[in-house]
Amino acid sequence: MQTPYFLIDKERIEDNLKLLRRLMDDTGCKILLAQKCFSCYGLYPLISKYLAGATSSGLYEARLCHEEMQGKENHVFSPAFKDEDIDEICGICDHIVFNSPAQLIRFGQKAKDVGLQIGLRINPECSTQEGHAIYDPCAPGSRLGTTLAVFEESIRRNPSLLSLIDGLHFHTLCEQNSDDLKTTLDAVVNKFGKYLSDMKWINFGGGHHITRADYDIELLERCIIRMRDEYSLQVYLEPGEAVALNAGELHTTILEIQPADEQGISNVILDTSAACHMPDVIEMPYTPPLQHAEIISNPSHQSHLYRLGGPTCLSGDVIGLYKFDHKLEEGEELIFDDMVIYSMVKTNTFNGMPLPDIYIKQSSEKCTLWKTFGYEDFKSRI
Ligand SMILES: *Cc1c(COP(=O)(O)O)cnc(C)c1O
């Protein structure tokens, strides 16, 4: 197996799926895979065994779900749909969620006439995350979701809109626990509570880190049951990360180790790149976990300190600063953990970087090659 490559651990994914399935069985909620996080359809047959379906960000993901998760629910949300896509989307989806009353007016009746369930994404204006403003749809100036003021103004002008809507959707969390969901749900009920009994379903969006060890599932269950029992709503959740959390690695090889600087830190050049293979490291930003090493934020003079970076032209193509439990050698293989969420879906060939191959670890004995990429994948995109 030639580096760099992603290695998806099928058994770990199945462990996550079992936990999500139990939540569905215990509460009656329906869980959808958010494909934008993990659209490796090689595992869709497995995911289909456990979850209710998938959610899509637009036509292409909707097609992928339609082709690879046959017979499962296919939901779609986009901040704005295009006229030329809407017929095809309506032909393959069963739920469509609009971002604004204007989109609802433009496409809602048409979608309803061909049998889709219609949703509206709301903005409960309740920020529960600090630090990652780019992941906060409730931040001031957000274009995502309809605020109560906009909602009420639009139904005052156009009262028939309300009867078009089957469900409300909110998505405001990112890698959060259920205490933040509860806070958000209280805000949803405070603001939109009087409309909830007119609805058939409510979608809690994604960002629930359900399969993380410290996640409070009981509180999540109480949130679901509250909506189910007080408002007779079918509850949907659409996690991405929770499906494939801690379920895969990115393997890379050390190309060069530069001499240590006055702080004792050596720059290491890998055959993987933050900019090309794990852009969230730069965008979010965060430092990914690495086997046999710990992440260092304040370097004091210690041994085995290495700053890992990619082979691209970008000075900021740095993955992070790590303290290893041994002295590194050129040619050595390093393994980043938790690397299959928001990584494979975001890779690019900037600088002509090769895309990592994708392997699936079927069991402790067996790995299969799922995808291999080459020069043509770079050339064909431009
Ligand atoms: C990103 C997103 C999700 C999935 O989020 P995760 O953080 O991966 O769980 C679900 N729904 C919507 C609308 C999203 O934008």
Give the key terms.
single chain, 382 residues, alpha/beta, eight-stranded parallel β-barrel, binds pyridoxal-5'-phosphate
Radius of gyration over all CA atoms, rounded: 22 Å
Percent in helix? 25-40%
Strand and helix order: EHEHEHEHEHEHHEHEHEHEEHHEEEEEEH
Average pLDDT works out at 97
Structure description:
By secondary structure, this protein is α/β, with parallel strands linked by helices. It has 13 helices and 17 strands. Helix 5 links the parallel strand 5 and strand 6 (117-121). Helix 3 runs parallel beside helix 4 and helix 8 (178-196) runs parallel beside helix 9. The longest helix is centred in the middle third of the chain and has 19 residues, at 178-196. The protein is elongated. The two termini are 28 Å apart. The site of pyridoxal-5'-phosphate has 14 residues, from helix 10.
Give a brief description:
The protein is built from 13 helices and 17 strands. With about 375 residues, it is α/β, with parallel strands linked by helices.
